[in-house]
Amino acid sequence: MSDQWWFCLTHMAVEPDEGCPNKDRMGPYPTREAAANALKTAAERNEAWREEDKAWDGD
């Protein structure tokens, strides 16, 4: 079994190392569950970065 997991943006599915080209995937993630949550994780990080950028606007 694979030690790394990826989320394929073409198929919107979790894949092991053997899968679509990396240019079409997010990852790697340490677990299948983490890869399954890739879009949620990315959205949360984007929101955190937006909030951080707001803090810098006045500087």
Task: Characterise this structure.
- This protein is α+β, with helices and mostly antiparallel strands.
- The chain has one domain.
- Helix content is 41%, strand content 22%.
- It contains two helices and three strands, in the order βββαα.
- A three-stranded antiparallel β-sheet has the order 2-1-3.
- β1 and β2 form a beta hairpin.
Largest sheet: 3 strands, antiparallel
Low-confidence parts, pLDDT < 50 over ≥5 residues?
A: none
Shape: elongated
Instruction: Work out the number of β strands.
Output: 3
Specify the helix fraction band: 40-55%
Distance, first to last CA:
49 Å
Chain-averaged pLDDT: 91
- Order of helical and strand elements: EEEHH
Alpha plus pi helix count: 2
Protein name: SPOR domain-containing protein
Organism: Streptosporangium carneum
Topology readout:
Layout: E1 5-8, E2 13-16, E3 25-29, H1 32-36, H2 38-56
Antiparallel strand pairs: 1-2, 1-3
Summarize the structure.
The protein has 59 residues and is an alpha+beta fold. 41% of the residues lie in helices and 22% in strands.
